[in-house]
Amino acid sequence: MATEARTGAPLPARGTAERAQLISLLTDKAKLVRRETVRLTRIAGAGHYTGTFSAAELFAALYYAQLRYRPGEPGWPDRDRFVLSKGHAAIGLYPVLADVGFFDPALLDNYTRLHSRFGDHPDMRKIPGIDFSSGSLGHGLSTTLGMTLAARVQGRSYRSYVILGDGELCEGQVWEAAMAAGHYRAGSLVAIVDRNQLSIDGPTESIMGVEPLDEKFRAFRWRVQRIDGHDFDAILDAFAGLGTDPHGPPQMIIADTVKGRGVQRMELDTNWHVGNLVGADYDDVLAEIEAGLQPVTAGRDGQAGGGDD
Amino acid sequence: MTDDTRAATGTTGTGTAAGQQISDTFTGSEGASAALKPKDQKGTTVKGIQAAAIPAFVAGQELADLGETDPRIVVLTADLAGAGRTADFRDRHPDRFFNMGVAEQNMISVAAGMAASGLRPYLSTFAAYVALLGCEQIRTDLAYPGLPVRILAHHSGMSLGYYGTSHHSLEDLSAMRAIADLTVVCAADANQLRAILRASLDLAGPLYIRLGRGRDPEVYPEVPAGFAFGRAIRLTEGRDLTLITTGSQVRPCLDAAALLAEDGLAVRVVDMHTISPINADEAIAAATETAAVMTVEEHNVTGGLGSAVAEVLLEAGAAVPFRRHGVPDEHVVLGPPAALYAHYELDAAGIAGRARRFLAP
Asked: Does an H or E element contain A83, and which?
């Protein structure tokens, strides 16, 4: 992998051969995320499948198309920052960090075992490429805002990205941070909500309604885009459409996704928030992942749609 | 926080003479605030007390000075730039000052993100709202990642008097010292606070600095040389009793020692400024070299300095008569600060009385 994955060069335009080539790469990398999530879960004995699968396309697009970083120099001061505020999806992020060259993929083979660097939630002191530890929901937008304001103090031009869960938005601190980001016009802060429709106990709108999300963030003085979070063309267009004024409004991308996307038995089914595949099911699921995304069917706990492609 | 709260906590009330406790006349009126402000900012006097002898009042000044040579320093507050005196930093380094509004948890995590990007954030607000409301953020976002954020927790203990339990912080030492990789220190006066802030520049991990109301009388006539976290300071020598104390109680303990001297008792006073890591050797020395040990703190007797010293002494096998003195395990009664200190025997006379009863056969 190159020392610098991206240099902030413009993303190829929709409809071009370069765009098709990039999306083909990203599609493979999203499969890597899902495949490795299944493998690592078996090592641990249980894992957060579905909230990771919903973010697979986002991880791939960020690390193979958008973020500016140097795998050989994780502390590069001008790198773009990325915080996974929904830390329970780290199982899908670790394989990406390994694949782009932050560390040896073989290190993942003892995932969650005694003295492993890799737990269910990421630790910045132990894992190159993790810009902030996470796991306690509601903190990540604040820490990412801190990175954004630090860039302003230091005269640096990096962007700071964060992925939030939709259930996580119930945490009050998210709204403290959203208010502060709007107040400080933190234009180089890019937040992405993985709007996968379910929290642990059921659909977000029955447990604790979070909508209308776009109106809420606009009211907090954010610029908001709402996209299909499994459609690479839409994700890349959203990235290309980000504002470049570091003193402009903070930028929200609400990514409508499907919890469990890519493995039909898990889609929109709360039973798979944490789980473990065994026996033939394990092989069946890997085969399904390799086959790529199929149309979403109505899950046990939600309606098809939103992220359906 | 209402305007009234800020005015009352920041700049009103009558000052105290050295050796006395906080005054009874804790008025909290807007008028008094306005009248005092110009004087405060000039760093001269607050109702006759040298501003330099008032801990919280020097924080912004000292940080602004340090900020001249250290561009990494940034300061955050939660709508208390006046009460915590960080306004002095804001005025000199406006681009490195962030008022985060009344949102303490966000402030702590924002500071964490700044520290992870190479800055040295100092955040300042009421102890109750940073240590108790923000306890989880301190653990998860500062201590767990080991980030160099410094917390100025002012108006600790019951120094907010009749504001009541919502504004008191009598549990913070207990909570903070249970967090791994967090240094916990109490400033006894302005000069010690300056020493702490200077020493903090070289501290790798996070730091919790417990401050009083900003009217604490002088203990150290000048900035103590050789200040080091975890190294207690022996202020007086004596064999009959050791008072191990910290922060706001150092001055009254010194005055209590003077009262006890009139009874012929020679009292050692130890300023155990750092609660975590505790200076075990100094506690054990007190137990082996003096006849009795009493801890004195403006904190619930459960879990703070007294508990920390008790743990050390018991594990060391010390067989010394021992008492914890602090606020009993109750939500304190209502009253102005000085009345509360008298009620709970945490003024000089009260401490001396407790000591006499403890030592009486």
From this structure: strand A81-84
